[in-house]
Amino acid sequence: MTDARTIADLAVEVRSKNAGPFWVTMELFMRDAAGYALVADPAYLDASMVARLYGVPADTIQIFRLPALNVVKISFPRPVSQGSLRDRDIHAGQHHVPLALYPLPASAPAAG
Fold first, then answer.
1. d(CA 79, CA 89)
2. Where is the DUF4387 domain (predicted)?
3. How confident is the model over 24-57, as pLDDT tens digits?
4. CA–CA separation, 34 vs 92, rounded Å?
5. What are the pLDDT digits (tens) for 62-77?
């Protein structure tokens, strides 16, 4: 067993999806309550962190913490509308990668 280094190391799944032509939703399905507690902590994951990762204004980001399911959902406006000429991911299926690869603090629990 090695120490976890990214959010993906503590998650069952990290995914993103189209939430209509103007929004993206990402979901962090954490393996257990300890992993959920870490990523759900506003001191670790907040709108300013997501804003830095995705280049969107922090005041447009919505974060939903669902402790009963060990899930964190994040929604924000798409940088370009779905299907537009500059849209490189029409289904928003790859938007989750920067979040999944976000480093964990040194005190993070080991992946299991």
1. 11
2. 7-100
3. 899 999 999 999 999 999 999 999 999 999 999 9
4. 28
5. 999 999 999 999 999 8
Cα gap 66→7, rounded to integer Å: 17
The Cα 29–Cα 74 span in angstroms is 12
SS3 40: helix
State the residue for tokens 């537009």.
84
Helix (H, G, I), strand (E, B) or coil at 10: helix
Q: Which residues pair with 27 in a beta bridge?
A: 15, 73
Q: Residue 1 above 50 pLDDT?
A: no
Q: For residue 31, what is the domain's CATH number?
A: 3.30.70
Q: Indicate the pairing of strand 62-66 with strand 11-18.
A: unpaired
Domain span at residue 14 reads 7-100
Query: Radius of gyration (Cα) for the chain, nearest Å?
Result: 14
Classify 6 as helix, strand or coil. Answer: strand
